[in-house]
Amino acid sequence: MSAHHSSQPLELLAPAKTSAIGREAILHGADAVYIGGPAFGARDKAGNSLADIAGLVEYAHRFHARIYVTLNTILHDAELDAARKLAYDCYDAGVDALIVQDMGMLELDLPPIDLHASTQCDIRTPEKARFLADVGFSQIVLARELTIQEIAKVRAAVPADTVIEHFIHGALCVAYSGQCNISHAHTGRSANRGDCSQACRLPYTLQDAQGGVVAFEKHLLSVKDNNQSGNLGALIDAGVRSFKIEGRYKEAAYVKNITGHYRQLLDGIMNERPELHAASSGKTKLLFTPDPDKTFHRGATDYFSNGRKADIGAFDTPTFVGLELGAVTQVGDKWFEMESNEDLSNSDGLNYLHKREVIGLQANVVERKGKVWRVYPNEPMHALHGLRPGLAISRNRDHAWEQALTKKSAERRIGVDAVFAETADGFSLALRDEDSITVTSCASFEKQPAQHPAEAEDSVREHLARFGNTDFEFGKLTVNWTQPWFVPSSLANKLRRDAVEKLEAARLGAYVRPLRKAAVEPPARYPEESLSFLANVYNSAARAFYAKHGVKLIEAAYEAHEEAGEVPLMITRHCIRYSLSLCPKQAKGVIGVQGQVRAEPMTLINGSEHLTLQFDCRNCEMHVMGKMKKHILKAAPPSTVPITFHPRQPERQSKRPLA
Q1: In a domain, 141, yes or no
Q2: Could you tell me if 148 and 162 lie in one domain?
Q3: In angstroms, rounded to a whole number, what is the distance separating the alpha carbons of residues 609 and 649?
Q4: Is the per-residue pLDDT at 594 higher than 60?
Q5: In CATH, what number is assigned to the domain containing residue 90?
Q6: What is the pTM assigned to this prediction?
Q7: Which residues contact 125 (CB under 8 A, 6 or more apart)?
């Protein structure tokens, strides 16, 4: 076991809706966890108390894993002071870093806590990435839309100690993060403030410039879910060092499964590449077989990693059909039979396709008959339209597999080598863990020669190896003595317990929390001199920040209700034209079509909502244009500071001595 000197750490970063899920993420192999604090985290309904976060920090630091708190909404002037206090509370709770979107945070009097730039900062260019590194961000989360080549260019532009973080799994925003105001325009709920109404998951009808229907009631803005399982090696080569899983609204089973899946993949890569090591300590042993296809997803895509592809959309249905099991062989009055090489169990959720509709059923009882399974569904057979021999059956709920995930499903242990030795007045036990942290415990004891010298060493080993309910796993034992002595089990147990207690304390003592990176002086220049509403500047501190960095013209964020006209409510690299093979660039070279296809505007319709699509073909982007609804425009710009006068319970302030 050696300390890592020249090798580079890889961080697997998992989401946590609650501190309990955060613990499971660490147990299942996460090197770091991101979680929402009590306020200002960009998932409105995923808040956690500071006491819970402090408990999670303590657990994580045992494995030298890190906890990041999301403070990544844009802030109203009335919220700046509360955000500053929250930053101090997080720092006092032991949190390792804050994930931030609002540049106003950098102008506040903050504790020396490390800062990460959220994906909401819309980081797609080397220039923007370099700027953020220069103003004091140590870790930056890139836009999900970047190709592997674009990521490599960003890596080359930032200082060596800047960590590049990238999303490798989970739901995708169709828009560049931080560049979507559709929810606020239609409902007054701001995505930049953690309250997105997910207009992109609705069905839309698409009309061309002449009013002809191109697509009817399809989920045209809904993209499949991100899965970079096949690209991890290439992403490492491009410079990614933190691998982020999406999902702060997700339940424990998803976090266990997806974290375990990527832990295994990254461990496999690190076994072959000694120049890389895990960013935290210990080895995870999973008590189930992870499989991303078994948790809900909208189909998988590696998005733009390897360039533009036509199949990133989940247009037909956002429902999850799962894995194909086999085909129906026979249909009875209360049952049907199917062939499958998989094991089925009672309460499995099954489905099949009938006239482009997914029909679901629950297996009440299943019986194995050789290679064939007889399934008694919960539903009456006559209600299962179109169920006939030859039809393919899929499973979207694997009951046995889900049950395994409700129980203890992983162990994580830190490797420890031991030296048991005789001392002048007794015995000592020295432990050295995989991070080269060493402790020794001693006990005085009147030595007596062992009655069975041949078995003495094995007996010592057996007593010392009982690390059962600790964080440690016993590795190599060296016994240093002049002759085999009698070592009673009570003495061996006491030495082991003392040593483990000392090692736990020494590990926490050895843990170093990362500190805030200093901004370069004189202040770095922002790559542009003017900012539109898309820069999300919503408070005076953010204005002061950009002015200090050379920006001359600054428009207010969309939430300030100063944009009355039609503006791009969403900017996306996903292009509906391209996905429907109507792209002028695709048409080049097609005989008879060349030069005829113009990227004229199109219209998306959902009920009374009309959105105009404009195509910026030079940048290969689509702009979804629209206006803010009148009643929203007239309403007060959003802030969490109550403007109404309902009685509210004052939140209890944590008792912190004033500086």
Answers
A1: yes
A2: yes
A3: 39
A4: no
A5: 3.20.20.380
A6: 0.91
A7: 154, 527
